[in-house]
Fold this sequence. Notes:
It is a single chain. The chain has three helices and four strands. It is α+β, with helices and mostly antiparallel strands. The longest helix has 16 residues, at 23-38.
Amino acid sequence: MPRKQTSVVATLLRLGLLQKDEWDSALHEILEISCELVGVERASYWSFRADPSSLVCELGYVASKKLLERGAVVLERDNPEYFTEIRRVQVLDIKDTRTDPRSRSSTAT
């Protein structure tokens, strides 16, 4: 079995050993596996919030730095096109958030 597949299988086996109350650990492993399998720099898990209408990054993983991040907030009032699109489809395939018109406003600094 190639090294990459062996690593993914080992990680999946570790996930099976986690207790139900170890959500952050499991999510970290899932995001790391996602980056490795898909070959992307970042993977993150976001939650909707109602007041104010927003998305909050519960946990993100940056592969090249092996770094976890959390707490970023995207407000609907600042990004109406993005919220319209994520309500329309369940998964957005965005190659570059800085150039895709659906997400461009959420990356402005």
